[in-house]
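During the no-cost extension, the postdoctoral fellow (Dr. R.K.) reprocessed legacy sequence entries with the updated structure-token encoder. One reprocessed record is reproduced below for audit purposes.
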Amino acid sequence: MTVPPQHTRLVKRRRRYPFDLRSTALFFVFLAVVVSVLGLAVRVAANTVERRPAWVFVLVLIGVAGCLGLRRRMRVAGVARRAAVALDEAAREAAEELEAPPVPRRRAAAEAVADYDALTPEEFEEAIAALCAREGCTGVEVVGGAGDLGADVVAATPDGRRVVIQCKQYGESHRVGSQDLQRFGGTCFTVHEADVAVLVSTSDFTAPALEYAEQCGIVCVDREMLEAWTHGTGPRPWDAATGGGAVGWETAGAGS
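Re-encoded structure tokens follow.
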């Protein structure tokens, strides 16, 4: 009878580590040192409190001040971060505005005034005054009315000259004649002390009127020139003036 061979069953045993006496001793020595140091610190603090109790108050104040200072630094840091974000946004907006196409300085005032002929004489004077203000004049004032002695609008040009304007709201068939220019020329320089005298009309000028204006140095602005000034496509009346008087605004031969 054959007996089957018995296989030896291998049993994996746990490895037993020997007790490390040296490591344990070192741990307890370190623990004893820590406890001794803490005890010594507590003892020194207690003796200090007994001998000099004022130091405790000083130390407490220093600790509180340190905590408050830390909190304040954190708050200041938060404010600084918010300020940096605000400055960054402002810089971004400024860059966007700089990149945007510039808006023309002389925008058309005619968008608000569809037809000068539909205005009353007072409204027409106000419209001319608004044009002067748009062009950078200062001290713009409407002085037209009874006893105005020919001045309807007075202002100071951007370069500091005094401009005196008379407004004539005439129809297309009613031209400004030489008598109108003579009445205005008799007061604009002597009475109103104008550096630049301008006569603005919704109509045209006769040839004698233009001749008189050229002799006296009065700038004549007819309907065509007024519309160009209004829309910003033509020069300003005082741009034609030189020195102490005025010269014709390319109208000496126009409208005759």
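The first helix runs from residue 21 to 51. The domain at 109-240 is CATH 3.40.1350.10 (Trna Endonuclease; Chain: A, domain 1). The remaining legacy entries will be reprocessed before the final report is submitted.
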